[in-house]
Design brief:
Blueprint (H helix, E strand, L loop, with lengths): L6 E4 L6 E4 L15 H10 L6 H15 L1
Antiparallel strand pairs: 1-2
Length: 67
């Protein structure tokens, strides 16, 4: 059996612990679509990953602003 170990990270935005699969090539965050403005905000304000909830909220904020 080939089990993949995910990294445990702490969200820089809310402090919640979450699992990250980026090092093994498959993470939930790969599916989150972010506009260029959202990516710029992430790079400016955070050095590491955000949890799924915070990343989804950020993406949604930029989608709402376009409507």
């Amino acid at each position: 059996m080939n089990l993949t170990k995910l990294d445990k990270l702490t969200c820089e935005s809310c402090g919640k612990e979450f699992s990250c699969g980026a090092k093994v090539g498959k993470c939930w965050c790969f599916e989150v679509e972010l506009k260029n403005e959202a990516l710029a905000q992430l790079r400016e304000n955070f050095k590491n990953c955000l949890c799924e909830n915070c990343l989804e909220n950020l993406a949604a904020n930029y989608t709402k602003n376009d409507e």
